[in-house]
């Protein structure tokens, strides 16, 4: 047990708690303060954003700015529709095949972790989900090289999950589909680094990781992909209907959309996606350097596909796990428990996590290891 060292001494900033949780995730302090200030009376309107009519002129200004900022940050061309929808990324596991299959009866899925497997199982309700690559046998600690993939040319599209929040595996390259439409779940990495939207037919991402709070999902879809949506598709699951209604087919999650708009403005103010990427790589490097040089901590993900966003790790001596977690919590580090399906620990380094927070965690982990020696 660690009893001789005051671990709290290693926290070097004024923030009382750093939230390393995988989502809902940390928000920038400046955004939280702005939300707090505007909450009772939104820009002199006399009402709170929590009460605001979703079809009012005030809210229209918010959503117009949000779409404009997203298009600017991600360089989204006009031939792509941008939607802000209910249902989380999990609903997109069904909406993607419903809208994109057309006359085809199969689609390809890269199985590289928990969430890609979930997407694949959902797709099986509507089509044959061909496994293009399967990392299950490795324990989802690697992404097999593309020469080992088997993509069925008869499939309607190839789906991949860019970053797996549980296993800590991330694509640092784009799959070569040989012309087949590419579909991406970018939930836990969107706007963390540049991506080529034009290489994708569909991108979707829930916002509670890098872009605000739970309740909202971004969808970016190339319009020509929606020419064969079956007439039997439920209205709320039809991208056409949401495009026609500008994402307000029914009452949207107003507050979550408002927070996403604030986050998009914050990312722009930080220097945009390229600046986010540089900072996120530095943060990941700090933590992986510690793990690689440690005798106490271990990360089992292959180095060429380590996630910048979610860093899982274990303690070599599992008897120290409860002590580590308690002292981390007492010190001001929240959300470090690993996913219930795998255990261990996980530090999520989303856009809002400052470098100071990662440095403080690394200092704490070094001091804990020294005290345990």
Please identify the structural class as seen in this structure.
alpha/beta
Mean pLDDT: 94
Supply the CATH class of the largest domain. Alpha Beta
Strand order of the largest sheet: 2-10-9-8-5-3-4
Which ranges are low-confidence, i.e. pLDDT below 50, for 5 or more consecutive residues? 1-14
CATH topology of the largest domain: Aspartate Aminotransferase, domain 2
Inertia-based shape: globular
- Please bin the fraction of helical residues: 25-40%
Corresponding CATH architecture of the largest domain: 3-Layer(aba) Sandwich
If you had to describe this structure to a student in words, what would you say it looks like?
The chain is globular, with a radius of gyration of 21 Å. The N terminus is likely disordered. The protein has two domains: 237 residues, Type I PLP-dependent aspartate aminotransferase-like (Major domain) (Aspartate Aminotransferase, domain 2), CATH 3.40.640; 101 residues, Aspartate Aminotransferase, domain 1 (Alpha-Beta Complex), CATH 3.90.1150.10. The strands form four sheets. A seven-stranded mixed sheet has the order 2-10-9-8-5-3-4. The longest helix has 21 residues. It is built from nine helices and 14 strands. α7 packs parallel to α9. The chain is α/β, with parallel strands linked by helices and 373 residues long. A hairpin with a 4-residue loop joins β6 and β7.
